[in-house]
């Protein structure tokens, strides 16, 4: 059996986790795979500022830092921010895939320029930061929002009739006004809209969460993982300190 740990960036309840788990239904996966969706112990309740980004890095790192010892074969980070990804790669030898960089790189195998479809205006600085960091300034046609405050637990459930057409209209502006040749959904919380947009847009649509599962499948099949030259191991790991911090935070 192949075991994949999917780290969910918020401390969700069982219903919230089920909405995230539904992403696995968007792509065919090997019969012997087991995806385990794990929420963080604690962390920010928002995701719109450098304050939130720093806390999210720590929360996701703590949730996955022992994945290899637990017997997992790979880790997927269920957020476009790639929070905690480089930290996890420094302590794990198994593949660690973040949805953000992976989906943008994959978009560039489908077209020359992509746009990111974000949920609302306060999230835009996070995407622009990632685009600058990864060097995609020339390939990113635009980042546009469809003005929908995020619901990290229920996602887009119950809002389909109102939100999906609005997402389509904003994506069409990315295509016709900005020159996007591919649309990247800006969050794994948008996965429910992936099939609708793919059927109603004239360009490919990248659904980031399901993409990470298929990339892990490829990595494992090819025997690939990140290298120590890019992600050196810590000289003195302090995972015990981190766990104590998260435990204290969860009880606050």
TrEMBL record:
InterPro entries: Asp/Glu/hydantoin_racemase, Asp/Glu_race, Hydantoin_racemase-like, Iso_Racemase_Enz_sf. Pfam families: Asp_Glu_race (PF01177). Transmembrane segments: none annotated. It comes from the Bacteria. Belongs to the HyuE racemase family. This is Aspartate/glutamate racemase family protein. It comes from Paracoccus benzoatiresistens.
